[in-house]
Hints:
Largest sheet: 9 strands, mixed
Strand order of the largest sheet: 14-13-12-11-7-10-9-8-15
Mean pLDDT: 92
Shape: globular
Number of helices: 11
Amino acid sequence: MQSRRNFIQKLMLTGAAIPFMPSYLAAAEAENSKDGLSFSDDRILRVAIMGLGGYGTRVADAMQACKRAKLVGVISGTPAKIKNWQNKYGILEKNCYNYENFDQIKNNNDIDVVYITTPNALHHDETIRVAKAGKHVICEKPMALNAREGQEMVDACQAAGVKLLVGYRMHFEAKTLEVVRLRETGAFGKIMFFQGLCGFRIGDPNQWRLNKALAGGGSLMDIGIYALNGARYMVGEEPVWLTAQETKTDPQKFKEGVDETIQFQLGFPSGAVASCLSTYNMNNLDRFFLNGEKGFAELQPSTGYGPIEGRTHLGPLTQPHTTHQTKQMEEMAGIILDGHKPIIAVDGNEAIKDLKLIDAIYKACKTGQKIDV
């Protein structure tokens, strides 16, 4: 069997955390305090991270402040990285695996869930293998390269009786949730318009994010998915049609199948519309704007690692910042261990909704047609 590194090489040739109480615990604490009771649950979600790159490291560092999620294992094709993580995070040798032998986690009772942070093209097969090993899965977004793969992943986890969650960290971010709450209470009135701007100028042209075989696309798969997903939870509806246009100014850097800039428009059942931009060629783009008949909300920055800043027609948003990945892992512990239902879904079916829209956006770019979804 080949290592992840060898697999990636072949594909290349072809083409600050603080302690806090999570929201579900806080709600329970408040409810129980009415009766003079105390709430505590000492069950811990034991996590192995697959893929020890930059984002995997960010998650690992953030988890050091978690109360209900603990990093206990690693999966990597690079022995030196495994050794470094063992030393840094105190990971036991018996909880360390590579890409050839990680199916053996089925015999390891120390691991509850595997968090997959590898390149997009690997998510499908790795998720299915983890599910067959009987472990829950947290998969980074985009969950898969397309909706067909995503459905296979959901089906595999369902067949194995394990949960499949996706790393939608913004679904737990305090200011984002406040905007959603205000919309649901009618503070903005009838929603008319959403704008999502997501982009940055990408660097190294040889990185995996610019390789279609590994990334599945370009900016839309990496950064544009925030605007797409954000349009859905900010408006509070599912789109019924979309249009999209692609712009490419540097075909050497952004080869065939790797989008540089995509603009896309969404229409919703209520009549609300969204206009979004995804790009790898412009900086200073990280903004959400929601407009209704009675008011508005603006987040800028809206999806970066934080702090998120925002305001509405009622004034500034003042919810405190918590490291996103810390908050996410605490909340996901509640989902997996306690059956907690998040305010905005983070399961595999939620991810399939985004993947179906991404498939349609790419189709609209090629055909120039308005696509019913």
